[in-house]
From TrEMBL:
Transmembrane segments: 46-68, 117-135, 147-171, 191-214, 235-258, 270-288
UniProt-recorded name of the protein: Phosphatidic acid phosphatase type 2/haloperoxidase domain-containing protein
Source superkingdom: Eukaryota
InterPro entries, alphabetized: PAP2/HPO, PAP2/HPO_sf
Species, as recorded: Coccomyxa subellipsoidea
Keyword field: Membrane, Transmembrane, Transmembrane helix
Matches recorded under Pfam families: PAP2
Length: 293
């Protein structure tokens, strides 16, 4: 009879510990879920930004304005223009490049290094994302994300062996603009390298990485992550978001500068190529958004 108070006290203590344990478990579980949802939502906001109608139609309109300024008043674009880009930018920059840099420097530093480095780095990022998405937890549908990334890589022309993206090749054949170079006599508008660079880097930062982080459609948890992994992923997504636009601009600018300094493209060629690359990124993001809806 004397042991009952102690037994009751021990039982109430155990019950209190059990309640506290359950409450803590719920708090941790809720925090993990919030972290997973947070990094998924952040990733999808990048997709929303790239696939917005403003970026899609804005890049197309800017491309048309550049085209009009170059070809206005000709059979390619009947409406008369002011020829601001050819007269005040293209020819002066071409003369400066030709008179300042030696042919060897233009070929080695500008054409071979600057023109191609951002494309190679962006392509490596595509392949890395495709590989990671395919091999990591395919049971949750990441395999589908990986296959989608790889399909984009091939269809866009990065892995197909074509010298230009198909739409760029069609535009070059239509406009028939010659290069400023005395050595290369192929067609120049729009710049295929610049289009490629802007598309590859932009799609990596604003389409492929967000899709890999967000996971397949219907994945509301963002993967099997513990609290520490969720926090690290959340920090990584925030860092990528903060640096995405500067990296995108820098990569496109390096390639465009390489084409100009190599004297194989007019400045307006690279401007048109950049707009076309942005349009392709925005179109890809818009399609991916529609497929996830």
């Amino acid at each position: 009879m004397e042991g009952r108070p102690g037994t009751e006290k021990a039982g109430s203590t155990a019950e209190a510990f059990s309640i506290a344990e359950k409450t803590l478990s719920k708090l941790v579980s809720g925090h993990q879920g919030n972290t997973r949802v947070r990094h998924r939502d952040k990733a999808l906001r990048s997709l929303d930004f790239a696939g917005s109608p403003y970026m899609l139609f804005g890049s197309a309109l800017l491309f048309l304005l550049i085209t009009w300024d170059i070809f206005g008043g000709t059979s390619k674009f009947p409406i008369q223009s002011f020829y601001l880009l050819p007269h005040y930018i293209d020819w002066p920059v071409h003369a400066w490049v030709k008179g300042t840099f030696s042919p060897m420097l233009r070929d080695m530093a500008a054409e071979k290094l600057m023109s191609n480095l951002p494309i190679y780095l962006g392509s490596a990022g595509w392949l890395a994302c495709a590989f990671a998405a395919v091999v990591q937890n395919p049971a949750r549908g990441s395999r589908g994300v990986g296959i989608t990334v790889f399909a984009m890589w091939v269809v866009s022309g990065v892995g197909s062996g074509r010298s230009d993206v198909l739409i760029v090749d069609i535009l070059k054949q239509y406009f028939q603009r010659t290069r400023p170079s005395d050595i290369k006599h192929s067609l120049s508008f729009p710049s295929g390298h610049t289009t490629f660079s802007v598309f590859v880097i932009g799609a990596l930062l604003y389409v492929i990485l967000p899709l890999c982080v967000a996971g397949p459609e219907g994945d509301t948890e963002g993967g099997d992550l513990n609290a520490r992994e969720g926090r690290l992923l959340d920090i990584l997504v925030s860092a990528v978001q903060a640096s995405a636009l500067p990296v995108w601009i820098l990569g496109g600018a390096i390639t465009a500068s390489g084409r100009i300094l190599a004297d194989v493209h007019w400045v307006s060629d690279t401007m048109g190529g950049a707009c076309m690359g942005v349009f392709m990124v925005s179109a890809a993001a818009y399609v991916c958004k529609a497929l996830r809806a």
